[in-house]
Recover the amino acids of this structure.
C-alpha cells in the first residue's frame, strides 16, 4: 500500500476515535439525572444556551468530522497543516467544557491523548517533508 495512503488512513482512524469518544460521552451524559430536563429548558450545566452558542458548538463539532473525510481529497502536506489547526481547536474545545465527574475526565483524557498523537504525527510529517 502507498505510504501516503497508509498515513491518511491512520489519521482518519484517529479522528474517528475522537468522534466516537465524543458520541459515547454524550450518550453517557443522558444517563445522568436531570440532563434531559435541563436540555428541554435550554440549559447546559446551569447556563442558558443561546443560538450563537449552538452555532459555534456545531461548527466546532463539524471540524473533526471533516478531518475524517478530507485526507482522501487533500494532498498530505495540506491535510497535515489543516489537521494541526483542527487538532488544536478541538483540544481547546474539549477543555473549554470542563469535565464534571470522573467519567468525563476519562473521556476528555482519551480524546486529548488521541489528539496529541494526531498533532505529533502531523508535525513530524511536515518536518520530514521540509527536509
Amino acid at each position: 500500500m502507498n505510504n501516503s495512503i497508509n498515513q491518511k488512513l491512520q489519521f482518519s482512524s484517529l479522528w474517528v476515535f475522537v468522534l466516537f469518544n465524543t458520541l459515547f460521552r454524550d450518550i453517557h451524559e443522558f444517563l445522568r439525572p436531570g440532563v434531559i430536563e435541563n436540555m428541554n429548558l435550554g440549559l447546559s450545566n446551569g447556563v442558558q444556551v443561546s443560538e450563537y452558542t449552538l452555532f459555534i458548538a456545531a461548527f466546532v463539532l463539524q471540524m473533526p468530522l471533516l478531518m475524517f473525510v478530507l485526507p482522501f481529497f487533500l494532498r498530505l502536506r495540506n491535510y497535515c497543516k489543516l489537521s494541526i489547526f483542527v487538532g488544536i481547536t478541538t483540544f481547546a474545545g474539549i477543555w473549554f467544557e470542563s469535565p464534571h465527574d470522573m467519567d468525563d475526565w476519562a473521556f476528555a483524557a482519551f480524546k486529548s491523548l488521541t489528539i496529541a498523537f494526531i498533532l505529533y504525527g502531523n508535525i513530524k510529517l511536515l518536518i520530514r517533508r521540509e527536509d
